[in-house]
Amino acid sequence: MEEEKIFLEGNTDKSTGVADAATAVQPAAPVPVSSEKSSSLGPLEQNVIDEALKKCFDPEIPVNIWELGLIYDVNVSPEGVANVKMTLTAPACPVAGSLPGEVEQRIKAIPGITDAKVELVWDPPWNTEMMSRVARVMLGM
C-alpha cells in the first residue's frame, strides 16, 4: 500500500524512501482551465467539488468526473448560485443528456447552494492528459 502511495504522489524522503503521509494520500486534482481558480477556492466551491463532483461518475468509466478532468470551472456566487463548466469525453457520449442534469441536482443538494447551473462546453476538447494521476492509475494508463 505504501508503495502505491509513493507511486501515486511521488512524495518521498530521498534518504529513507518513505512517503510523506499527509501528502501521499491526497488525490491529484485536475488542472482547471483557469488556473487562478485553483488557488482561490472558497468553502462552497470546495464543497461542490467534494460533495457533488467527486461523487458523480460516468457510468461507463469507474472514475469520478473530477478526477477524469471533465470539470473546467467551479464558481459559487455570494448568493449561493453555483456555476460549473464541464465537458464530456466526446460529443457523442451516451450520457450527454443525463450527466449534466445529475451534476446539477447533486450540487443543488449541498447546504448553502441556492441554485446550480451546469454549462456543457467543448472547448478545449477533453483528452486523456486532463485526467489526474489517480485516474490514470485507476484506469491502468
The radius of gyration over CA amounts to 16 Å
- Write down the overall mean pLDDT: 78
CATH architecture of the largest domain: 2-Layer Sandwich
What is the CATH H-level superfamily of the largest domain?
A: Fe-S cluster assembly (FSCA)
The helix/strand series, from N terminus to C terminus, equals HHHHEEHEH
Major β-sheet, in short?
3 strands, mixed
State the end-to-end distance: 19 Å
Unreliable stretches covering 5 or more consecutive residues: 1-37
CATH top level class name of the largest domain: Alpha Beta
Beta-strand residue fraction? 5-15%
Extended strand count:
3
Structural domains: how many: 2
Provide the spatial order of strands within the biggest beta sheet: 1-2-3
Please tag this protein with its features.
141 residues; alpha+beta; GMP Synthetase, Chain A, domain 3; 2 domains; three-stranded mixed sheet; 3 strands; 13% strand; disordered N terminus
